């Protein structure tokens, strides 16, 4: 169960880039695309 909760936390933290610009945000489109690409692949 702990592994599943950790996976969800990691997912939420990494996808903050798409929703908010406070803690996690990409300064450029290239960084944003690279980060999301690494997460998906």
Characterization of the model:
This is Transposase. Pfam families: DDE_Tnp_IS1. GO terms for molecular function: DNA binding; transposase activity. The chain has 41 residues and is mainly α. The protein has one domain. It is built from 3 helices and no strands. The longest helix is centred in the first third of the chain and has 13 residues, at 2-14.
Termini gap? 24 Å
Q: What's the count of strands?
A: 0
Any idea what the radius of gyration is?
Answer: 11 Å
Order of helices and strands: HHH
Low-pLDDT runs of 5+ residues are none
The proportion of residues in beta strands is under 5%
Quaternary: single chain
Mean pLDDT: 72
Describe the sheet with the most strands. Answer: none
Tally the helices. Answer: 3
Shape: elongated
Structural class: mainly alpha
The total number of structural domains is 1
Q: Tell me the helix content.
A: over 70%
GO biological process, one term: DNA transposition
GO molecular function, one term: DNA binding
Organism: Spirosoma pollinicola
Pfam families: DDE_Tnp_IS1
Quickly describe the structure.
Helix content is 71%, strand content 0%. It is mostly helical and 41 residues long.
Features:
71% helix; mainly alpha; single chain; 3 helices
Task: Explain the layout of strands and helices.
Elements (H helix, E strand, L loop, with lengths): L1 H13 L1 H4 L9 H12 L1
InterPro entries: Transposase_27
Protein name: Transposase
GO molecular function, one term: transposase activity
